[in-house]
Every structure is written in C-alpha cells, then in structure tokens.
C-alpha cells in the first residue's frame, strides 16, 4: 500500500495545541504537493492547509494565524502544528499527497472540547 499514514491526533481542550504528522514514504515517485484536509460529522471534507515543493503554502481562512504547515519533501513527510484550537476544529484530519495522482491517508481524529 502507498497510502500516507497520519499520526498525532487526540483529545485537547479549547485553546490547546496538537501537532499532526504524516508519512508518505511508500510513494516512490516525486510528490509535488502535500496537505491536510478535515471532515466534521455531517460535513464535506474541506481543505485545511497545503504546501508545495517550492514552499508555497495555502490555508483555509478559518485556520490562518493558528495553524502552520511544514514539510520535508525529501523524507515525504508533512506536519501540521495546530495552536489555539477551537471546538469547530474537531474532525477527522486527512493527509494528502499529490503526484500525478492523489493519495489519501485514513485520517486521524482531532477532538477539541469546550
């Protein structure tokens, strides 16, 4: 399987922090973009943040100033530092890696209690 593997989710109180990690090392071709998406119950999957090999980042408006994405493309890993977490950040967080195809992880649960 070449599926990316996420880790680092958990339960945290509002205002707290979590750091998510994702390894896509089993993808043997060059990865161009890596990112994080999330899905809350009853909602569609939405973009959280992406980063390109060139270092360009893109964030959802709802997380700007609170979350920071970083990546090591040589190691095919991507991270998401999440600070000042809010209950609305609760959801299943998916890692995505893009080559000419798009690869998705199985997700890691983030729950923020009020």
Notable traits:
globular, 0% helix, mainly beta, single chain, seven-stranded mixed β-sheet, four-stranded antiparallel β-sheet, 114 residues
Describe this structure in words.
This protein has 114 residues and is mainly beta. It has no helices and eleven strands. The strands form two sheets. Strands 2, 4, 5, 6, 9, 10 and 11 form a seven-stranded mixed beta sheet that branches. The protein has a four-stranded antiparallel beta sheet with strand order 1-3-8-7, with no helix packed on it. A hairpin with a 4-residue loop joins strand 7 and strand 8. The model has no long low-confidence stretch (mean pLDDT 97).
Kindly summarize this structure in a few lines.
This protein is an all-beta fold.
Main sheet summary: 7 strands, mixed
Determine the fraction of residues in helical runs and give it as a percent range: under 10%
Mean pLDDT: 97
Proportion of beta-strand residues: over 45%
Structural class by secondary-structure content: mainly beta
Number of helices: 0
> Distance between the terminal alpha carbons, to the nearest Å?
37 Å
C-alpha-based Rg, rounded:
13 Å
SSE pattern, N- to C-terminal: EEEEEEEEEEE
Give the uncertain stretches in residue-range form.
none
Shape: globular
Count of beta strands: 11
Question: Topology of this protein?
Answer:
Blueprint: E1 5-7, E2 10-13, E3 18-23, E4 33-39, E5 46-52, E6 57-59, E7 67-72, E8 77-82, E9 91-98, E10 102-104, E11 108-113
Parallel strand pairs: 2-11
Antiparallel strand pairs: 1-3, 3-8, 4-5, 4-9, 5-6, 7-8, 9-10, 9-11
């Amino acid at each position: 399987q070449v599926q990316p593997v996420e880790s680092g989710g958990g339960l945290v109180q509002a205002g707290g922090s979590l750091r998510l990690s994702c390894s896509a090392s089993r993808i043997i071709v060059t990865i161009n973009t890596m990112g994080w998406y999330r899905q809350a119950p009853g909602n569609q999957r939405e973009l959280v943040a992406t980063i390109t090999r060139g270092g360009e980042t893109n964030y959802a408006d709802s997380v700007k100033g609170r979350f920071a994405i970083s990546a090591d493309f040589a190691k095919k890993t991507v991270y998401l530092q999440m600070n000042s977490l809010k209950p609305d950040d609760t959801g299943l967080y998916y890692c995505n890696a893009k080559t000419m195809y798009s690869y998705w992880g199985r997700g890691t649960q983030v729950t923020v209690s009020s």
